[in-house]
Every structure is written in C-alpha cells, then in structure tokens.
Write a structure and sequence with these properties.
Radius of gyration: 24 Å
Structural class: alpha+beta
Strand order of the largest sheet: 2-17-12-14
Number of helices: 6
Distance between the termini: 48 Å
Helix content: 10-25%
Strand content: 25-35%
Shape: globular
Number of strands: 17
C-alpha cells in the first residue's frame, strides 16, 4: 500500500524536494536505430534498460539548493567557553563564537555564513548554523510529514557538487516534526573546497526508511558451518 509523504513550503524561497523520473525513451530509440540499421554496433546495455538502476535512481526525493551560494571550507575549533567566551575566542584566534548546546565553536568570519539570512516572524535568521567538524546545518525552509514507524535517510547524491560533502544521516519522525514546526528540515553539509552552488541545483537525496531496517541483523549460517569443520577436513567430506 502506498505511503503518503507530505511536504510543506514554510518559506516562499524554499524548494521542496522532487521525485526523479528516468526518461527511458532516448536510450530505447538509440538502441532501436542501431539494431535496425547497423551490422555490428549496439546500445542494448544502457543504464536506462536496467530495472535495478532505474529503481535506484527513482527512489526517494532529490533535495535542491534554495539559493546561489559560494561555499568555502570552514575551519572550526570546539571550545568550553561558558565562563569566559571572549577569552576563549581570543585564545583560539577566531573572530566568531557559536554556541551549540554544551559547546562553543570558534570560526573565522565567513561571508556565506551570514549572507543568506531570511525573514521569519521572529526576525532575521541564518540559513546556516555552525555544526562542528567542518560542517554546518543547512536550513532548507520546507517541512515534511514522516509517517509513524518510518525514518528519513539523508544521503549524498550522484549530483552533489564536487567540494561539498553531505554526511549520511538518519532523522526520526520526531526530529523532522520538530524541524517542520520551526524553519524546516536541515541537513549537514561540509565544504571541502571553494564551490559555487546554484538555486535549484541538486545537493542530496532523502529516502523513507522503515523502522525494521534499523533492526536488521547479520546472519552467516554458511560461514559458521565452515568454521565448525575440524582442521584438515573438507567442507564437502
């Protein structure tokens, strides 16, 4: 039975994810032309003719960039700056200090971190939040209703721009619900080199994941049987 997943555009600039559909017709036409008109050359073994490949391409949704952004790597130093935040910042020789839960993250002033502030009912907010280990949270401005019993798997895309890493992660429906009530889903990204990303450019993929998938266990009965065979005896004996 199909599962409905609802997306909500929380801000006018947001681009909700889109499902990708493989266009098989061009490859079929090419294969037919070669088959009917050429003696030797063929194009039958194309990705578009392979059902597993097509299903893999059409699985889930493609996450799109909502803005034109020029990323650069973001060096971050994690500090304990509760008692003396200014002193910690000076010690780290960084111009900005971001508090994230129990830690403070010291970074150099970087234009793209602040350039894309967006309007909310509470005022202007940053699209990017410093996250640690060179990553930032990218707030995308749309929400999603993940059904009970499912999780949301975030993975890099084949189209993710070179120089921008998307760490694989899993969000519960509780987490996605909370994000959807604020400024929308956020994904972690890590710039590793200067890279320009354009609005409507694909940056990641999201896939609905059933809770049973997280409880799957590995079983190797054949391996166990081989290990139980006394030394010097054949497995076929």
């Amino acid at each position: 039975m199909p599962v409905d997943v609802r997306f909500h555009q929380l801000h006018p600039w947001a681009l909700p994810p889109q499902q990708h559909q493989v266009n098989r017709q061009p490859s079929r036409t090419k294969a037919r032309l070669l088959r009917e008109n050429f003696r030797y050359t063929r194009a039958e073994r194309q990705p578009e003719h392979c059902a597993p490949w097509v299903m893999g391409q059409e699985l889930g949704w493609r996450v799109l960039s909502p803005a034109d952004i020029s990323f650069t790597p973001l060096d971050q130093i994690e500090l304990d700056a509760v008692e003396d935040p200014e002193g910690a910042g000076r010690a780290a020789n960084r111009t900005e200090l971001w508090q994230r839960e129990k830690s403070h993250l010291a970074v150099e002033k970087t234009s793209w971190l602040h350039l894309h502030q967006f309007k909310t009912a509470r005022g202007w907010e940053n699209m990017f939040l410093v996250n640690g280990a060179g990553t930032v949270e990218w707030r995308l401005g749309w929400g999603i209703d993940v059904p009970r019993g499912y999780f949301l798997l975030i993975v890099p895309s084949e189209q993710t721009p070179t120089g921008l890493e998307v760490p694989t992660g899993i969000l519960s429906n509780t987490a996605t619900s909370r994000m959807s009530q604020e400024n929308g889903l956020s994904i972690a990204v890590r710039p590793t080199a200067p890279v320009a990303v354009r609005r409507d450019q694909e940056i990641a993929r999201i896939v609905l994941l059933h809770a049973d998938s997280l409880q799957a266990r590995s079983v190797y009965p054949d391996v166990d049987a081989i290990e139980d065979i006394p030394e010097g005896e054949s497995a076929r004996a």
